[in-house]
Specification:
Blueprint lengths: L1 E2 L3 E7 L1 H5 L5 E7 L13 H5 L14 E8 L5 E15 L25 E13 L4 H17 L5 H10 L2 E2 L7 E3 L7 E3 L13 H22 L3 E6 L2 H14 L8 E3 L16 E6 L3 H4 L5 E5 L4 E3 L11 H15 L20 H19 L7 E5 L5 E4 L1 H8 L5 H7 L2 H10 L3 E2 L3 H18 L3 H17 L4 H9 L23 H16 L2 H4 L7 E2 L21 H15 L3 H6 L1 H7 L3 H13 L6 E3 L1 H17 L8 H9 L2 E6 L2 E4 L13 H20 L4 H4 L8 H10 L3 H11 L5 H30 L2 H17 L14 H5 L7 H22 L3 H29 L26 E5 L14 E7 L3 E8 L9 E6 L3 E7 L13 E6 L4 E6 L5 H15 L18 H4 L6 H15 L20 H4 L1 H6 L22 H15 L3 H8 L7 E4 L15 E4 L4 H7 L10 E5 L6 E5 L7 H7 L6 H24 L16 H5 L10 H7 L12 H10 L25 H8 L14 E5 L10 E5 ...
Parallel strand pairs: 10-12, 10-13, 11-12, 19-20, 32-35, 33-34, 33-35
Antiparallel strand pairs: 1-7, 2-3, 2-6, 4-5, 5-6, 8-9, 13-14, 15-16, 17-18, 20-21, 22-23, 22-28, 23-24, 24-25, 26-27, 27-28, 29-30, 31-32, 36-37, 37-38, 39-40, 39-45, 40-41, 41-42, 43-44, 44-45
Length: about 1950
């Protein structure tokens, strides 16, 4: 029996503190005044009496009752029931009013209180109790309040004394108590039936009624997963009930964190606590708690639940959660079962609220019971006496239930709630309750429910009835209680009495006397002492945990056949049948993925263990260790299935003998698993073994001590023992029952026995942990360091770990420093010992002994590991297959010893799982680095795996550590080699490969990768070694480097030294003698080249004549003019007047990177060229590259001109030249530059007005689609993506989207951008105002339409002030960004490891690399060049960077798009040789081929080939060569097998004697007869010793092309009517090149035809072709190739000499039928015109943005997005993907109309154009100066505005209108704007507002008509000022200011609708 009430407290308002500026409460009286011994009084109750704070009020309020909960340090809850009422007080000022300002605290605001003001002060009557009887507390406080208010004559002291001393409450399960506190009342109190069951009444039902099912379940999950939960409400009763309900729904768990149902406002800082809590606060504090970032807030009044963004609430797995929600729906909504019935039965009667409350609780209880099914089987008992100590095997429970991946279950098991559940309900001997019965009966109920689902609701109702009976044990007592109870209540209005006296002061002595009297009377009551507590009993264990799903991958099941294979494999191992064991190993390893198979393995190995130590042979040991490693690898770190725990005794039993006295145990070979580092695993295994020993300690029969379950017992005996022996919990229950009856000596003996059992197991596990945590590898390295000295040492090593400890003296020897690994092991084992010994109650003396023992065990084991590591190296190697060298290309030879290795799988999906890992060797040759081997999988071991790549393509080499637990042999370090050809070789070196061999291999790779001289590359290696001086380093000293630099600078500036060393630099003469004079040749000896084709060696002697040198020079130049690039210039007309082929660079003195002959205008002399070189970087002056055959426009290229920087000053002047001369030289160079550009302008026909085609003007770039509207409908134009005018009915959406799609333009390079990807995302597009401002069009008619004759694509900052020349500053993908993009693309295409699910996928990585965005930029810039040359007829000069990277890319792409000749095999070769080889490209630096490694690989040429590949994909019939040709060129551009791409310029090739001797190639295809077989192309070096030096890549390709159509596009059909290609440059239209992702592991890379087997001679047989391994194109050729091969075979069978394939192909004649004629359909025409329009628009933007580059645009406002489903196909403004339909809905800016996906809204870089930009102030000046951009006429401006995605806001009509609301029908004035461009009627709150409140889409408007006056019109309005606007959704009512305004609005709207 315990007291009902502990304390009675009267709390009042503290007037003294109020006068001091603070409002607070004060305890006026408390009874009893002396604390009870068992229950102390809690301070701070006054805070909880008024949760909203103490304050005086001017109005009287009704009495209020609420309950607060206080929690003490022991987690016991104390309930504070408060009855609050008001008392009248008179406020008298304590000082005159005139003293306020003189007071010290005058800054405090003083309340405006009049003299003798009447106020109401709060006062509280508080009951403090440990009992949870809220209704009884309410009745008692009400009786006391009623006696005082009504003045019934009963002393209040008597009532308080009786309440404190008279009422005693029995514990749970006791009888009903009836009592009276002395006021004539009769009360009854009924304790619950079971002690731990919570009492909720209707609180749970109220919670779900307020929040709903979903929010309530989510809130329950948050509480169960220990989150911070905050409840809000205006009513304190709701907060208390909701907190009570959430705590009750956790049953059988108890909430163990901060629990405050009613938090006072003054303690709001408690919400910042880092611990979980369940708190309720008043809704007035909502704003203050809104800033909490990790608190889940539930508002009970509105039913909302706010979960912060960073909070993740775990939920039960899907089936359990769905069953919970469905059961709640059936309980709360019983009509759901019959809602769909055809003949609906009568509505079921709903249960009363108190029964619904219990049914809801029953649903949650059953959910937790399902989740914790079988939990008692995972309880581990480690101590029985003196008190039971239990732990829970969490990993075993998760594994048995299959909940390892359920975050809710894992979080629940790790919570404090679960630890409390184990401590409270774990003991097997205790009283039971409803929960134990539910856990016991639930499996049977679920079985019955599976047969009859209707039983689920019945079982719920039965459980709910048990809960109801727990709260009301006496059902008859409910009616009897209502009849017999009598509780006093005050009459209505009693609290509003004016003259109510204050609550009197209670007499303390009298209260004390009453308490003493009542207490003495209760002490003599025999009924109170006769109550019996419920008796304890054995708790049944229930059903075992089930639910884990077997591993079903590869059809793995626990079948008898698979287990038989496992047993036979183990039997073969122990019977020394190793071959049979290895054959079955793959199947066994697959089977071991299943937990049941792993358990069978462990049991079988344990059964074959004869003793505690089993010596195995070497092969047996290795195979057993491999099985154990595989079993551990398949298991997780948690060891859910106890596999690692079962392996522990096996690892210390199986061993092998290395030598005398040195034994290697299995645990030394299975250490590399994460499970051994998990302390949770060690604790669980320790507790399991302790429980086994405790169980053996108490088994009554002695025989059982000798037959303890061990791994050696068979399955039958184990099952028999389990059936006979009691479980550990049953034994513990029996011992707990007998414990009180045992004598004290027996009790002490049992306690000591259990403690010693824990101590001995702790010692055992400390040794086990040391064995498995100390690595064998570390010991081996330590032995290597000590070497032979360690063998001769006598253990006299200093630096002991614990010199001050006595453990060293006891061990008998001095110990060495264990190192970092040893110290970490000591710390971990010590933590483990502390944890388990503290929980198990081990004595402090034993714990200290353990801590002293651990360092000694570590040191002894380290010595053992040293010996084992030393002896393991002396084992004889396992016989392995012989290494066979692979097939090599001609001239390839081995460069080192092959390393035996294992090829591991990487992250590429093409690598088939059965092919890798493959066992073989890693080979190094002078050309390649390759691996060849066979798969380890016995089912695929007949295949051959080859991976290779050229050495010159190696980008990175690093050492890796490969996980080799599943491999047969122990492996050492590995290598990971990544190549620029998108190949990756990841190998693990074999154990026989020493570290010295691996290091020598890596050094050889580095030496061959970067040879000291270019002539040592593989393509040139057969030549004689270079001279010694050539192979030497360039500069030996800093002085030499500085001298060399100054000499180069001076020579490039045009200065030459005199023969005398003392003379200064002077300008050279311009006559012919300067070319052949000895001073010049001597000055060029170190920097320029001597050409063998010029044959000037004899002419340069001291005695040679000038005329002889000139004649020799002329003969040499005639041969130079016959080179391929010179012939191509002659083909396009650049060798005839008004152009010429100049020889100013014959000696490469003009520009070292230019060819010997260059194409320039005829009027430009050689001397002018020399002067102009000083204005350009690297002296690369503008050269003519191509001429348009129709327009005559020129395409020229050069480097960027020098700016006024340091290098510009260095290039343009000399330090030795005086000031006037310097200025004159600079002026001369600038004049020559201007003269050169003026000449290009003059040579352009467009500048002279010679073009008659009116369409070739810049107006066509804007008006190209105006003419299309006469032939096609707007819908067709919109679908085709044209820029045509759309109908009004479409609302402008489709046109805007089309304009956005085709108006996307390449981003401009900005080096300030931090992310390289942002450089390629379009940031801004041009509006009409922008084009107006840059084009010089002000709308005046006097300005003529001019266009520039020459456009100079230059860098930012470059300006050319010359008539007819328009500078176009552009941004482009420079080398730095290309290098970074390629590095990311390489990692995405060839990842080193498989990607995890949370990592970005392949396509995401490709997008993030920026490679496709750079390709898009190249297409846009080259497209602009194409349009300017072809459409406008203007010439283009590419003046970018140094003129050899992006310049070559743009020039080459533009020529391919313009000239069909370059799309042939011959033309593409000529174009590459001209643009890349002759005009120079830094192949050595970009491909990292220099002698010293450069910064990285920059594939500029590869990006160009990728762009050609994109063209080929979009125009598959326009190219004579196929995709394999491009991939072949891309591969060999970095392979160094051919000399073609080895050097940067023609000058370097000439210096080394590699210049082409004759460019006239013999066309072998004219012979018509195939003269050789497969040996016709034996290799690149089939022409003698020097063959490979005279054969380039394209010659090799031509030979292969003559033999077979390997590179030919058999679908090649040139379209002569449309020769110009205009590709789509959108990123969504670009494809990932097959070159990046393809792989063939059968023969290696598919770009070495010499290594292909002649598959034509193989007999025809059925074979399996596998993608990623075989070459599908060769195994399954196309129809054309197959027919040609069939013709060849037939000719051979007939005895004829086979014809060449090209002869047969040319003999084919197409039938002259109409079906084969290539007629353009309407669709293709629309698409072609749309693409042309997109290109022209892009060109216009490029030109216009060049004008805007100097004037930065003002910052644009942000977008305001609104959901807008697209009614027609549109394109996203960010990603250009389709934006249409219900699946791809998007958002649209309400201001500018930009549309995109929701996912792209945040990343959209386009600014919002809310207002139309005003014209600049100096617009007239720009109009006069600017040239080149066509002036926009009014019509073109209108068309451009309609379809620009960045349209400025257009206000057709605007004004104030009254609009009637749709809901409240009220009129409100708004500012309306009619926009005819966007087809919208927008409205704003005011005229000044920039944010639109809403808009009406005019596409939805049906009619606009005058309307009758509506009710409630605005004041002073005319009857005719009303009009209605009816849409498809609703009708809008408007009212204008007068009738005229209404008429004007109506006309404007109707005009927009027409």
């Amino acid at each position: 029996m315990s007291r009902l009430v502990d304390y009675f407290v009267i709390v009042g308002f503290d007037h003294e503190k109020e006068r001091g500026g603070l409002s607070n409460g004060v305890i006026l009286q408390r009874f009893p005044e002396i604390n009870w011994e068992d229950t102390p009084f809690h301070d701070g109750i006054e805070w909880f009496c008024q949760p909203q704070g103490w304050a005086l009020s001017t109005e009287r309020s009704e009495p209020r009752f609420y309950v607060s909960v206080l929690t003490d340090v022991d987690a016991n809850r104390h309930y504070c029931a408060c009855l609050c009422f008001n008392e009248t007080v008179a406020i008298t000022p304590t000082k005159p009013a005139d003293e306020d300002e003189e007071s010290l605290d005058g800054s405090r605001p003083v309340a405006n209180i009049t003299h003798h003001s009447i106020m109401y002060a709060p006062k509280c009557l508080v009951i403090v109790s440990r009992q949870d009887y809220i209704d009884t507390f309410r009745n008692c406080l009400g009786i006391i309040y009623t006696v005082w208010v009504e003045n019934l004559g009963v002393p209040l002291e008597t009532l308080v004394g009786n309440l404190l001393g008279c009422v005693l409450v029995p514990p749970a399960g006791g009888p009903q108590v009836r009592f009276s506190i002395g006021a004539g009342d009769r009360q009854a109190l009924q304790p619950p039936a079971a002690p731990p069951m919570p009492v909720t009444h209707t609180a749970v039902h109220m919670l779900l009624r307020l929040l709903g099912i979903h929010n309530s379940v989510t809130l329950w999950c948050a509480v169960m997963s220990e989150h911070k939960v905050l409840l809000l409400s205006l009513a304190a009763a709701r907060l208390s009930a909701a907190c009570r309900a959430l705590a009750a729904l956790m049953f059988p768990f108890r909430y163990a964190h901060v629990y405050i149902p009613l938090l006072p406002a003054g303690l709001a800082e408690v919400l910042a606590t880092p611990t979980p809590f369940l708190i309720g606060v008043h809704s007035s504090l909502k704003e203050e708690v809104s800033e909490l970032l990790d608190v889940i807030v539930a508002d009970l009044d509105v039913g909302s639940l706010h979960i912060p963004a960073g909070v993740n609430i775990p939920q039960p797995e899907g089936k359990l959660l769905s069953s919970l929600q469905e059961a709640l729906a059936l309980v709360l909504q019983p009509e759901l079962k019959s809602a769909d019935s055809a003949f609906a039965p009568p509505a079921p009667s709903s249960s009363p609220p108190h029964m619904l409350d219990k049914e809801i609780r029953a649903v949650f209880m059953r959910t937790l019971a399902k989740l914790l099914q079988g939990y008692r089987h995972c309880l581990t008992i480690i101590r029985i006496h003196p008190a039971p100590v239990l732990t829970f095997h969490k990993a075993g429970f998760l594994g048995a239930r299959g909940l390892s991946q359920c975050p809710f279950a894992v979080r629940l098991l790790e919570s404090m709630f679960f630890n409390g559940l184990v401590a409270e309900r774990g003991p097997p001997w205790r009283p039971t309750d409803i929960w134990d019965e539910l856990v016991q009966n639930l499996p049977e109920q679920q079985r019955l429910e599976s047969l009859n689902p209707e039983l689920e609701l019945q079982h719920l109702q039965e459980l709910a009835m048990q809960l109801h009976l727990n709260e009301n044990p006496n059902p008859q007592g409910v009616s009897a209680q209502a009849y017999s109870q009598r509780v006093l209540r005050p009459p209505e209005g009693a609290s509003a009495r004016i003259h109510q006296p204050p609550l009197p002061h209670l007499d303390t002595a009298r209260v004390h006397d009453v308490i003493e009297e009542v207490t003495a009377r209760n002490a003599n009551n025999p009924k109170l002492s006769a109550i019996r507590l419920p008796a304890p009993r054995i708790i049944p264990p229930g059903a075992s945990p089930t639910g884990a799903v077997e591993h079903t991958q590869l059809l793995l099941t626990n079948s008898a056949r698979r287990l038989e294979v496992l047993r036979s494999c183990i039997a073969a191992i122990f019977e020394c049948r190793y071959a049979d064991a290895r054959k079955s190993f793959p199947g066994v390893l697959r089977a071991l993925r299943a937990p049941s198979a792993r358990s069978a393995l462990v049991r079988d190995l344990a059964a074959r263990l004869p003793t505690n130590k089993h010596l195995l042979q070497h092969h047996q040991f290795e195979l057993v260790v491999r099985l154990l490693n595989c079993a551990l690898q398949s298991a997780s770190a948690l060891d859910e299935h106890s596999i690692a725990a079962a392996i522990l005794p096996l690892a210390t039993a199986y061993c092998r003998k290395l030598c005398t006295g040195v034994i290697q145990y299995a645990f030394m070979c299975i250490q590399e698993h994460q499970v051994w580092t998990s302390q949770q695993f060690w604790e669980a295994a320790f507790y399991q073994d302790v429980q086994r020993d405790i169980k053996a300690l108490y088994i009554p029969s002695p025989a059982h001590h000798h037959r303890i379950p061990s791994p050696r017992e068979d399955d039958e005996y184990i099952s028999l023992l389990k059936a006979q022996e009691p479980s550990a919990l049953e034994i513990a229950a029996e011992q707990m029952r007998l414990w009180p009856t045992l004598p004290q000596e027996k009790q002490r003996e049992l306690i000591a026995s259990e403690e010693s059992t824990l101590y001995s197991q702790a010692i055992h596990y400390a040794n086990r942990m040391v064995y498995l945590l100390l690595p064998l590898e570390g010991a081996g390295r330590r032995a290597d360091v000590r070497g032979d000295d360690a063998d001769r040492a006598s253990n006299s090593i200093t630096n002991s770990v614990a010199e001050s400890d006595s453990a060293d003296a006891e061990s008998g020897f001095e110990e060495a420093d264990p190192g970092e690994a040893g110290n970490n092991v000591i710390k971990m084992v010590s933590r483990f010992v502390d944890k388990v010994c503290t929980e198990g109650g081990v004595t402090a003396e034993h714990v200290r002994c353990l801590h002293q023992m651990i360092p000694g065990v570590v040191h002894m084991h380290l010595e053992t590991l040293d010996a084992v590591a030393r002896e393991s190296r002396r084992l004889p190697p396992v016989q392995k297959p012989r290494i066979a060298w692979p097939a090599l290309v001609s001239g390839e030879a081995g460069a080192g010893t092959a390393l035996r290795a294992l090829l591991l799988a990487d992250g590429r999906g093409s690598a088939l799982s059965q092919l890798l890992p493959a066992e073989g060797a890693l080979f190094l040759t002078n050309y390649r680095l390759l691996f060849k081997g066979v798969p380890l999988d016995p089912y695929a071991c007949e295949a051959t795996v080859v991976r290779s790549f050229p050495l010159s393509a190696l980008t990175r080499e690093k050492g890796v550590r490969a996980a080799h637990a599943h491999l047969e042999h122990t492996l050492h370090d590995g290598l990971q080699l990544r190549a620029a050809t998108f190949q990756l070789i990841k190998v693990a070196l074999d154990e026989e490969v020493s570290s010295e061999q691996a290091e020598a291999f890596r050094k050889a790779v580095a030496r061959l990768r970067h040879p000291p001289h270019p002539l040592l590359h593989f393509a040139l290696a057969p030549r004689a070694p270079p001279p010694a001086d050539l192979a030497q380093p360039k500069h030996h000293t800093l002085k030499g480097f500085a001298k060399k630099t100054l000499l180069k600078t001076a020579r490039r500036a045009g200065l030459k030294p005199k023969p005398s060393k003392r003379q200064k630099y002077v300008l050279p003469s311009a006559d012919a003698r300067s070319l052949t004079s000895p001073p010049l040749m001597s000055s060029l000896s170190a920097d320029t080249l001597s050409l063998e084709e010029l044959e000037l060696s004899g002419a340069c002697g001291p005695g040679s004549g000038v005329s002889e040198g000139i004649d020799t020079h002329s003969r040499s130049l005639e041969r130079v003019r016959e080179r391929v690039y010179a012939r191509d210039w002659a083909r396009v007309g650049l060798a005839a007047p008004p152009f010429r082929l100049a020889h100013a660079n014959a000696l490469y003195t003009l520009c070292r990177s230019y060819p010997a002959v260059v194409a320039v205008p005829e009027s430009i002399s050689d001397e002018s060229l020399r002067r102009a070189t000083r204005c350009y970087r690297q002296s690369r002056v503008p050269l003519l590259s191509w001429r348009h055959p129709r327009t005559g426009a020129l395409l020229a290229r050069s480097a960027a001109s020098h700016h006024k920087g340091v290098m510009g000053m260095l290039k343009s002047s000399s330090h030795q030249t005086p000031g006037p001369a310097q200025s004159g030289t600079e002026t001369t160079s600038s004049l020559e530059q201007e003269r050169y550009l003026a000449t290009l302008v003059a040579l352009t026909p467009a500048s002279r007005g010679e073009l008659e085609d009116s369409s070739l003007s810049l107006d066509s770039l804007l008006l190209c689609c105006e003419e299309q509207q006469h032939n096609h409908t707007p819908l067709l134009s919109k679908a085709a993506g044209t820029l045509g005018v759309l109908g009004r009915g479409s609302g402008g959406k489709g046109g805007t989207s089309a304009a956005r799609h085709f108006g996307r333009w390449g981003s401009l390079k900005d080096r300030r951008q931090p992310s390289h990807l942002e450089l390629y995302v379009p940031r801004q597009r041009l509006s009409t105002a922008d084009l107006d401002s840059v084009s010089g069009d002000g709308g005046g008619s006097g300005n003529t339409n001019r266009r520039a004759a020459l456009y100079v694509l230059s860098e930012k900052g470059a300006s050319v002030a010359l008539a007819g020349v328009e500078p176009v500053p552009v941004e482009y993908p420079d080398a730095r960004h290309t290098k970074h993009a390629f590095k990311k693309l390489l990692r995405a295409a060839a990842p080193s490891a498989p990607q995890s699910p949370d990592e970005p996928g392949f396509f995401r990585l490709v997008e993030e690399s920026g490679w496709l965005w750079q390709l898009r930029q190249l297409f846009q810039l080259s497209g602009a060049v194409v349009d300017l040359l072809d459409v406008q007829g203007s010439s283009v000069l590419l003046s970018l960077e140094d003129g050899w990277d992006v310049t070559a890319q743009i020039s080459s792409l533009a020529q391919i798009c313009l000239d069909p000749y370059y799309r042939t095999l011959e033309g593409f070769r000529i174009m590459v040789e001209k643009e890349w080889l002759a005009l120079g490209h830094k192949f050595q630096q970009r491909s990292n081929l220099a002698a010293t490694p450069q910064q990285g690989f920059t594939p500029t040429f590869l990006m160009f080939l990728d762009a050609v590949h994109q063209l080929q994909k979009q125009f598959p019939l326009a190219f004579e060569f196929n995709d394999y040709y491009l991939r072949f060129v891309a591969y060999h551009s970095v392979s160094c097998r051919f000399r073609t791409f080895l050097f940067d310029s023609e000058a370097q090739r000439a210096e080394l004697g590699l210049a082409p001797a004759d460019d006239r190639r013999v066309d072998a295809s004219r012979l018509g007869v195939e003269t050789g077989g497969s040996g016709g192309v034996a290799g690149a070096g089939g022409e003698g010793e020097d063959g490979r030096t005279s054969l380039g890549l394209f010659e090799y390709i031509e030979r292969l092309h003559q033999r077979s159509p390997l590179f030919y596009n058999l679908l090649y059909t040139p379209d002569l009517d449309n020769p110009v290609l205009r590709p789509v440059s959108a990123v969504s239209s670009l494809e990932i090149w097959e070159y990046y992702v393809s792989e063939e592991m059968a023969h290696g890379v598919p770009y070495e035809p010499d290594l292909w087997l002649d598959e034509r001679t193989q007999p025809t047989q059925r074979r399996l072709v596998v993608a990623g391994y075989d070459s599908i194109s060769r195994c399954m050729p196309d129809a054309f190739t197959g027919l040609l091969e069939r013709l060849r075979q037939l000719e051979l069978e007939l005895g004829h000499l086979p014809q060449k394939w090209r002869v047969r192909w040319d003999q084919l004649e197409l039938p002259n039928t109409l079906e084969l004629q290539r007629n353009a359909s309407m669709c293709s025409g629309v698409v072609r015109r749309a693409t042309a329009a997109a290109h022209r628009r892009s060109t216009l933007e490029v030109l216009a943005r060049a004008r805007m580059a100097a004037a930065p645009a003002p910052p644009a406002p942000a977008h305001r997005w609104a959901p807008a489903p697209a009614a027609a196909p549109a394109r996203c403004d960010h990603c250009a993907d389709l934006l249409w339909g219900p699946l791809e809905t998007g958002v649209r800016c309400v201001d500018c109309g930009a549309a995109c996906h929701e996912r792209c809204a945040d990343a959209l870089a386009l600014p919002c154009t809310r207002y139309k930009a005003p014209p600049p102030a100096d617009r007239d000046r720009d109009r006069a100066v600017s040239s080149g951009v066509a002036t926009l006429q009014s019509s073109s401006q209108q068309y451009y505005e309609q379809f620009s995605s960045n349209v400025a806001e257009n206000r057709t009509h605007e004004g104030h209108l009254y609009k009637r609301g749709a809901l409240l029908k009220g009129w409100k004035q708004r500012w309306f704007v009619l926009d005819s461009i966007k087809h919208q009627l927008r409205y704003y709150d005011a005229m000044e507002d920039s944010h639109c409140k809403g808009f009406i889409d005019l596409a939805e408007v049906l009619t606009v008509s005058q309307a009758a006056p509506a009710p409630g019109p605005p004041k002073k309005c005319d009857e005719r000022s009303f009009f209605d606007l009816r849409t498809s959704r609703r009708t809008y009512n408007f009212c204008a200011s007068d009738a005229n305004a209404a008429q004007e609005w109506t006309e404007k709207l109707q005009a927009c609708l027409q």
